[in-house]
């Protein structure tokens, strides 16, 4: 192997590296820091709190000895099947693994593992930029081993597999997702041969568990410009296998000279806009999925042109099936995404006419604690390149925002608590839990949202007596 001898002692200034090196020296084994830590150091990115050590020997034994040498003797978690061990120390996750050689069978990403040299270990790593190692043993402290020119790929912002990509990806197809995830996180390009290999093997993604795929999807969504990752997922054919609801949005149709926008590329713009405004993962999912109902609801009408009637409702139903298929949570985050998709057009629709107080009160009531998120989704949704339209949308949006503030100050609809409680209704008419209570409460809520009465006790009490009378209820003497 032919490579320049490079020293980067600055990377390993933290006392933990000297400490691990000394323990390795005592055991008489080679030891290196490898992978993400080295990459992120060279990129001057915030250093990761997980640090990977590889030793030409037993990773578990090294971890145990390191733990003994550290103050407080932290616990070692060992994973015998993988020959790895982990120590949590001083806010760091220290991962130890013995250098190994891997060989794969066709239908599984679980390799047959044997002990190997550092070179074997570097060969099994996913990308050149992740295969750099820095020696920690005293006599070679800070020496960098970069057999695949990872440093020059870092400078060229290039993602490339160390070996033949067809083999690397076929061995472990998750690496295809990782390539795209790193491209999105680091804003790198994927080398053409590597990219072509992903395209030709995209169906191999089917052997990867959904959970692992979602970890990568989330990392792409959380990157600064998720469109880079999702664009690559589409280009390689992976997206069609993972989220066909999105690829179904691609394309522009034209009938009788009328076109609609390409909702796939529009969606990616919305996600990028959202990424500028919020780092909330679920808001980003909502941005990604806000238009998925448009593919199944698309119609052409001779008079009005293209329509997507009810796409928000259809889309929110699709969210459930999509989360379920990807084995994602079906709890509160999913419900939040559903609600945001369902309501995604509301703030804009109400801004198109004269903005009435009651429409705003309903919006506040229905959105509840997701109001801010919904408003963020709506600004993100403005992607028109026509400056006149863009100005109009933004102005309308500001009007709605102002109105929300004004109505909220006056009517306190947020976290709406009915001014007359169920208990008071029961006491007033001397009735037990019954259908009538629900009806009365609903009537009061409607009257407040419609602006027929203010959100106050006196007015609500009076209306309750009136409505109850229509139901045949009379107040009992107190
Ligand atoms: P991050 O922590 O930001 O996800 P990382 O590069 O540290 O990035 P890890 O998943 O922590 O990624 O893995 C640590 C190292 O292990 C990687 O840098 C890479 O060398 C190697 N690695 C991880 N997963 C794979 C894989 N599926 N195939 C080959 N090598 C891998
Ligand atoms: Mg890492």
Walk me through this protein's architecture.
The strands form five sheets. An eight-stranded mixed sheet has the order 1-10-9-2-3-6-5-4. Among the domains are: 5-154, Beta Polymerase, domain 2 (2-Layer Sandwich); 157-242, Hydrophobic Seed Protein, CATH 1.10.110; 422-470, no CATH class. Strand 9 and strand 10 (143-145) form a beta hairpin. The protein contains 24 helices and 16 strands. The longest helix is centred in the last third of the chain and has 25 residues, at 387-411. The mean pLDDT is 92. It has helices spanning 15-27, 36-42, 59-69, 118-123, 150-155, 165-171, 174-186, 192-200, 210-221, 226-236, 238-242, 244-247, 263-277, 281-289, 294-297, 311-325, 332-342, 346-352, 357-367, 371-380, 387-411, 422-429, 435-450, 457-470, and strands spanning 6-7, 31-34, 50-55, 76-79, 84-89, 92-98, 100-103, 112-115, 133-135, 143-145, 158-159, 189-190, 254-255, 258-259, 299-301, 305-307. With 478 residues, the chain is an alpha+beta fold. Helix 7 packs antiparallel against helix 10 and helix 23 packs across helix 24. Adenosine-5'-triphosphate binds next to strand 3 and helix 7.
According to DSSP, the number of beta strands is: 16
Proportion of strand residues: 5-15%
Calculate the mean pLDDT score and round it.
92
CATH-defined superfamily of the domain at 5-154: Beta Polymerase, domain 2
Quick structural overview:
This protein is α+β, with helices and mostly antiparallel strands. The protein has helices spanning 15-27, 36-42, 59-69, 118-123, 150-155, 165-171, 174-186, 192-200, 210-221, 226-236, 238-242, 244-247, 263-277, 281-289, 294-297, 311-325, 332-342, 346-352, 357-367, 371-380, 387-411, 422-429, 435-450, 457-470, and strands at 6-7, 31-34, 50-55, 76-79, 84-89, 92-98, 100-103, 112-115, 133-135, 143-145, 158-159, 189-190, 254-255, 258-259, 299-301, 305-307. The chain is 52% helix and 12% strand.
């Amino acid at each position: 192997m032919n490579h320049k001898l490079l020293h980067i002692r600055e990377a390993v200034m933290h006392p933990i590296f000297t400490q691990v090196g000394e323990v390795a020296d005592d055991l008489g084994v080679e030891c290196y820091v490898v992978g993400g830590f080295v990459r992120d150091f060279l990129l001057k990115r915030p250093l990761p709190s997980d640090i990977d050590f590889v030793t030409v020997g037993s990773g578990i034994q090294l971890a145990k000895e390191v733990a003994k040498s550290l103050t407080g003797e932290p616990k070692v978690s060992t994973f015998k099947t993988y020959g790895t061990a982990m120590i949590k120390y001083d806010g760091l996750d220290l991962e130890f693994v013995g250098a190994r050689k891997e060989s794969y069978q066709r239908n599984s990403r679980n390799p047959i593992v044997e002990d190997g040299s550092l070179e074997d270990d570097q060969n099994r790593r996913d990308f050149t930029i992740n295969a750099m190692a820095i020696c920690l043993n005293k006599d070679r402290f800070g020496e960098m081993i970069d057999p695949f020119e990872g440093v020059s790929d870092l400078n060229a912002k290039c993602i490339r597999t160390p070996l033949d990509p067809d083999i690397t990806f076929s061995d472990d197809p998750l690496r295809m997702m990782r390539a795209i995830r790193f491209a999105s996180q680091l804003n790198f390009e994927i080398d053409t041969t590597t990219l072509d290999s992903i395209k030709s093997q995209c169906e191999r993604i089917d052997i990867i568990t959904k959970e692992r795929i979602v970890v990568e999807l989330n990392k792409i969504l959380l990157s600064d410009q998720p469109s880079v990752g999702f664009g690559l997922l589409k280009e390689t054919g992976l997206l069609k296998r993972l989220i066909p609801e999105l690829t179904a949005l691609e394309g522009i149709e034209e009938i009788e000279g009328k076109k609609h926008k390409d909702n796939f590329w529009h969606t990616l713009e919305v996600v990028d806009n959202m990424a500028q405004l919020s780092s909330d993962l679920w808001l980003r999912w909502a941005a990604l999925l806000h238009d998925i109902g448009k593919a199944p609801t698309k119609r052409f009408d001779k008079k009005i042109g293209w329509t997507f009637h009810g796409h928000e409702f259809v889309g929110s139903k699709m969210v459930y099936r999509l989360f379920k298929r990807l084995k994602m949570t079906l709890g509160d985050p999913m419900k939040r995404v559903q609600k945001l998709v369902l309501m995604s057009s509301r703030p804009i629709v109400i801004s198109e006419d004269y903005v009435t107080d009651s429409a705003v009160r309903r919006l506040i009531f229905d959105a509840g604690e997701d109001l801010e998120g919904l408003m963020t989704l709506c600004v993100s949704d403005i992607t028109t390149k026509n400056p006149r339209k863009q100005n109009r949308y933004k102005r309308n949006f500001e009007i709605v925002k102002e109105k929300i503030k004004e109505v909220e100050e006056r009517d306190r609809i947020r976290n709406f608590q009915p001014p007359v409680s169920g208990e008071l209704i029961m006491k007033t008419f001397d009735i037990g839990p019954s259908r009538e209570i629900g009806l009365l409460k609903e009537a009061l809520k409607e009257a407040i949202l419609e602006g027929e009465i203010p959100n106050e006790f006196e007015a609500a009490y009076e209306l309750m007596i009136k409505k109850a009378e229509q139901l045949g209820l009379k107040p009992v003497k107190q």
